[in-house]
Amino acid sequence: MKMYFVRHGETDWNVNKKIQGSADIPLNENGRRQAGELAARLAGLQKEGEFQAVRVYTSPQLRASETAETVAEALGLSCISLDGLREMSMGKWEGMSWNRVREEFPGEYRAWNSHRRYRKTPEGESYQDVVSRAFSAIAYILEREQEDVLVVTHSAVLMAVRCYMDNCPFKEREMLGRYRADNTEVVELSGEELARAVKQFHEEEQRS
Question: Interhelix angle for 191-207 vs 155-165, to 10°?
Fold first, then answer.
């Protein structure tokens, strides 16, 4: 079994370099075009037998659900929303640029950036929080599916999950350099490897 993870299409906040987090921002015109192009590409692969997802799972946030529904319709698949796939909550920093965050929250930003796996943003989440709920959503999918699925989610979710799976430090350079996904980029992950990561994570939580 494979899980094909997709980052949502472009939004105006992506263009303007604003931190989105839990803010429910819709796709812009280019984002809708990207979703349509992704749908057409996957439909073509489906027709050729090279892409065989049987269901689409999505974050409930607009930018993800709009992307997912466009693809699901083109593929003739059902689309299921899971709250655990939503984007990382960035709390007070949402709507700001990273430069503004560094200027207005210098101490909080340094503390978070130095310990970003476990440190929460002001009134927001940590990457550990994101991994925990994302793996709960993935476990839900693994329990119900034996065949390939498409999962539409967000940049921080993908970075956190992949970083944990590769046992990579949750540092800015590694996360952005190795794991950042472009809008509507598809990332293929093995269901077996995901299952092992979920099991390992839950065992670690129980020991802590």
Answer: 80
Residue 49 — left, alpha, or beta (φ > 0 → left; ψ -120 to 50 → alpha)? left
Note whether 164 and 201 are within 8 A (CB).
Answer: yes
- Kindly state the tokens that stand for 184: 């509507």
pLDDT, average across residues 126-144 = 97
- What does the longest C-alpha to C-alpha distance in the chain come to? 54
Q: Is 202 a catalytic residue?
A: no
151, burial (CB in 10 Å: exposed 0-12, middle 13-18, buried 19+) = buried
206 has a pLDDT exceeding 90? no
**Per annotation, catalytic residue among 87, 94, 108, 125:** 87
> Domains along the chain?
2-90+126-207 (3.40.50.1240)
Q: Please say if 185 is a catalytic residue.
A: no
Cα four-point dihedral sign 42, 16, 133, 118? positive
* Residue in 8, 10, 108, 125 annotated catalytic: 8
β pairing state of 149-153 and 186-190 = unpaired
The encoded tokens of residue 155 equal 């940049």
pTM: 0.96
